[in-house]
Design goal:
It is built from 9 helices and 8 strands. It has about 325 residues and is an alpha+beta fold. The longest helix has about 50 residues. The termini are far apart.
């Protein structure tokens, strides 16, 4: 009798043999139906996919929370910086206080949120692989082999990532800046990631530039901008009178309440910049708020055109020589 009890105790439970690694629902369903295939299939479906779905749901929720927290921290940092800047004397206050801190904070916040999302995705991927029976060691070993195989091909990607990081940290440009990245890529920065920068040109074209290819940057809206206007008058015009009219137009523009928030100083009439047989070029410079120089230039030109017409100051006329005209 004792021997029979020992043998029965040592015999494996048929439920355990059928439902090994098949989830919590398999034993109950097998006891109710006695169908081995049905119990194993339903048990696996209720175990693995459901657990994977829970992991993905938790990862999505954690990602949303992290991105919200990062965004709020960035907003609070900007608010504190603005309050601190308002208490500082003008001699110590940064010249880029006009919206520049907000643009940089938005850029850093975006990159930080991207890094947080990448970290959450990697952790979720490791958990999903664990559920599927793939261990972390095997996953890391496979990643190492793939990394060695793709090492040479990933050099450009690594260069772009490092360049993108230094662009953000050194504050070369930020979202909302008007920049010239070379090779015709000129426009307003819409998005910066660690890998690339997206620009929107004035004609609507979108430029995607890899950060590793940005060797030099012309930022046209950092801290302050400068409007530059060249006015070409006729060689017979009174240059002194033309300069007086240019200065008067600039003074009126600076005093106009509609433009006072965009023009930081009265335009500086530099005088004669260039002379040639077609006319005399007079150059005018004016400091403006960041990225407002183009609008100020257009308004200044139209006002100069009206003032010159009222004062009778002739503009230069282009000399066009016909192909069949005799040479002098």
């Amino acid at each position: 009798m004792h021997l029979l009890t020992t043998v029965l105790a040592a015999a494996p439970d048929p439920v355990d043999a059928v439902c090994e690694n098949r989830g919590w629902a398999c034993p109950w369903l097998y006891e109710q139906t006695g169908n081995e295939s049905l119990a194993r299939t339903v048990g696996w479906l209720l175990e693995k996919p459901l657990l994977i779905a829970v992991i993905l749901l938790v990862a999505w929720a954690v990602n949303r929370v992290l991105r919200t927290v990062i965004r709020r921290i960035g907003d609070r940092a900007v608010a504190r910086a603005d309050r601190l800047g308002s208490m500082m004397p003008d001699s110590l206050r940064r010249a880029d206080r006009h919206g520049r801190s907000q643009a940089r904070a938005e850029t850093i916040s975006y990159v930080t949120r991207s890094l947080a999302t990448m970290l959450v995705v990697l952790i979720a991927l490791g958990c999903v692989l664990s559920v599927l029976g793939v261990g972390w060691k095997a996953f890391l070993a496979s990643a190492g082999v793939i990394g060695v195989a793709l090492g040479f091909g990933a050099q450009t990607l690594i260069r772009d990532l490092l360049a993108g990081w230094f662009i953000v940290v050194e504050d070369r440009y930020g979202v909302g800046d008007v920049v010239d990245l070379g090779v015709g890529a000129v426009g307003t920065v819409e998005r910066i990631t660690l890998r690339s920068t997206r620009l929107r040109a004035q004609n609507g074209n979108v430029w995607h530039v890899n950060n590793g290819e940005v060797l030099r940057v012309a930022n046209k809206s950092q801290s302050w901008s400068r409007a530059l206007v060249d006015v070409v008058v006729s060689v017979d015009a009174d240059v002194d009178e033309a300069c007086r009219v240019l200065a008067e137009v600039g003074t009126l523009l600076h005093a106009d309440p509609e433009w006072a928030t965009k023009v930081r100083s009265e335009p500086d009439v530099l005088g004669v910049h260039l002379m040639d047989p077609t006319g005399v070029t007079l150059r005018v410079l004016c400091e403006t708020e960041p990225a407002d120089q183009f609008e100020v230039e257009r308004e200044y030109r139209i006002r100069v055109l009206r003032a010159f017409d009222a004062e009778g100051i002739p503009l230069a006329q282009a000399v066009v020589q016909r192909p069949d005209a005799p040479l002098a």
